[in-house]
Task: inverse folding
């Protein structure tokens, strides 16, 4: 933010002084895009929907002032180049939600915490993950690390016309039982390598579904989802939650 203010101050000063020749630079081209808050290298874990396999993931995001764009420039899956790249943009009428469409027409939705230090992401293929900026490895975890009071936002998306993202909610987790806005889950299965919990979700109306959760490398942020029995990604609710 200080960098943006400095640039604006310089532009206003030069304009007031009438400085420069007729070839003045376009001031808008000198301002970082809103998506620049995501710049950096991010590390975490991903669940692939097709086979439910778990992997590490590293994402590099970089902004270009001249083109006023922010791009995912590299994705590594288990330290192997994945090839995913593309331009990020904000999603209208949402809070802290960004989108990207890859060259292969896979849509990615990203939902960050309030400070843009972590993000939950989901793709139109149903792949889901958590990332933290500036981390390179994960420590040792145990099944009880999920137990806490979590606070954050939720998102529902059809990856085309509609993305709902609203309100602040609390999610308490005690003995691996977590209460979400429309029911609760007993996380019975835990993977210590990828910090992953999964279990049966009990909807308030009596229906059953699935919920899974991934913890950030520093254990301060929880990315999770709740899906009905269809497991259709557009019928899932995704969460971006910070430990309190």
Result:
């Amino acid at each position: 933010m200080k960098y943006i203010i400095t640039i604006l101050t310089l532009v206003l000063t030069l304009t007031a002084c009438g400085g420069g020749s007729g070839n003045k630079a376009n001031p808008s081209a000198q301002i970082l895009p809103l998506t620049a808050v995501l710049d950096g290298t991010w590390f975490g874990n991903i669940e692939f929907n097709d086979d439910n396999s778990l992997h590490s993931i590293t994402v590099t995001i970089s902004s270009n002032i001249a083109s006023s764009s922010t791009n995912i420039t590299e994705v590594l899956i288990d330290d192997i180049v994945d090839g995913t790249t593309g331009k990020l943009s904000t999603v209208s009428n949402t809070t802290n939600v960004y989108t990207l469409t890859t060259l292969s027409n896979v849509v990615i939705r990203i939902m960050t915490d309030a400070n843009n230090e972590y993000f939950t992401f989901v793709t139109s293929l149903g792949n889901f993950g958590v990332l933290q900026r500036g981390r390179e490895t994960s420590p040792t975890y145990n099944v009880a690390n999920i137990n806490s009071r979590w606070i954050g936002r939720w998102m529902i998306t059809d990856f085309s016309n509609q993305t709902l993202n609203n309100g602040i909610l609390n999610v308490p987790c005690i003995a691996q039982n977590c209460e979400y806005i429309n029911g609760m889950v007993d996380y019975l299965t835990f993977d210590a390598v990828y910090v992953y919990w999964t279990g049966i979700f009990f909807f308030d109306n009596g229906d059953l579904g699935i919920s899974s959760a991934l913890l950030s490398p520093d254990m301060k942020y929880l990315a999770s989802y709740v899906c009905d029995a269809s497991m259709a990604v557009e019928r899932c609710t995704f969460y971006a939650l910070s430990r309190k």
Notes: The two ends are 26 Å apart (CA to CA). The helical segments are 2-17. The domain at 143-243 is CATH 2.40.128.20 (Lipocalin). Confidence is low (pLDDT under 50) at residues 1-29.
